[in-house]
Amino acid sequence: MALTFYFGSGSPFAWKVWLVLEHKAIPHTATRLSFDNDDTKSPDFLKVNPRGRVPAIVDDGFALYESNAICEYLEEKYPQNPLLPKDVQARAIIRRLIAEADNYLYAAGSALMEQTLYVSPSERSPARIEEAKAKVRAELPFWANSLKGDFFADRLSLADFAIYPYMRIPVRVEERVPGQGIKREELPANIAAWMKRIEALPYFERTIPPHWKA
Ligand SMILES: N[C@@H](CCC(=O)N[C@@H](CS)C(=O)NCC(=O)O)C(=O)O
């Protein structure tokens, strides 16, 4: 039985899982849930994730939610094209980076989204937007210093897939509301080059949030 992947367009948590599914070429059915229609709160979906959030998967009858748990499960269940190294300390550092991305990088980016994309233009406060942008900018040197050459580990890993969607958020804000996000040119040069490297992966295109392409 194929794996069902539940996602919402634009969810950075779902994006990281999608990148893992594609990287490992795991056959799956991608089922898009609409936030506007409250699909994530339907009785059927609540059986998959009682918290009513995406991503979630059902793999041969096994339901799992929480993006990081899903990525680790996929890595163990489908060992092809590994995304975690064998070395225990190298794995630990990748997990630490993922936790830091969740706790600090996503937190900064989501605060910026809240001040820009989630409010009407008349409700936008230039001061609060600048404050949120400053928090994103304050994160950037850490991530620039954490790159180990081409990727965040010796080779492409779960860390890259966890960090990419979060790093993309402030750039997306700039695309949607010019002047209120972070321009690509403003990113540290090695981070901008790393983003291009992820975007050049042969399957990347398939994972772009569908509503961005519409
Ligand atoms: N910690 C969760 C976060 C999942 C999450 O917050 N997903 C959001 C979309 S980005 C969601 O489904 N929200 C639906 C809702 O709150 O109704 C994970 O890593 O999977």
Walk me through this protein's architecture.
This protein is of the alpha+beta class and 214 residues long. The chain folds into 2 domains: 3-77, Glutaredoxin; 88-207, Glutathione S-transferase Yfyf (Class Pi), Chain A, domain 2, CATH 1.20.1050.10. Helices cover 55% and strands 8% of the residues. It has helices at residues 12-23, 43-48, 67-77, 88-116, 126-146, 158-176, 189-199, 204-207, 210-213, and strands at 3-7, 28-32, 56-59, 62-65. The chain has a 4-stranded mixed beta sheet, covered by helices on one side. α1 packs parallel to α3. The longest helix has 29 residues, at 88-116. The site of glutathione (GSH) has 11 residues, from loops.
Per DSSP E runs of 2 or more residues, the count of β-strands stands at 4
Looking at the overall shape, the CATH architecture of the largest domain is Up-down Bundle
* Proportion of residues in extended strands: 5-15%
CATH class of the largest domain: Mainly Alpha
The whole-number mean of residue pLDDT values reads 97
Q: What structural category arises from helix and sheet content?
A: alpha+beta
Distance between the termini: 31 Å
> What is the count of helical runs?
9
Count structural domains: 2
**Ligands (ions, cofactors included):** glutathione
CATH topology of the largest domain: Glutathione S-transferase Yfyf (Class Pi), Chain A, domain 2
- SSE ordering: EHEHEEHHHHHHH
**Coarse shape:** globular
Low-confidence stretches: none
| Main beta sheet strand tally, sense and closure | 4 strands, mixed
What radius of gyration results from the CA coordinates?
17 Å
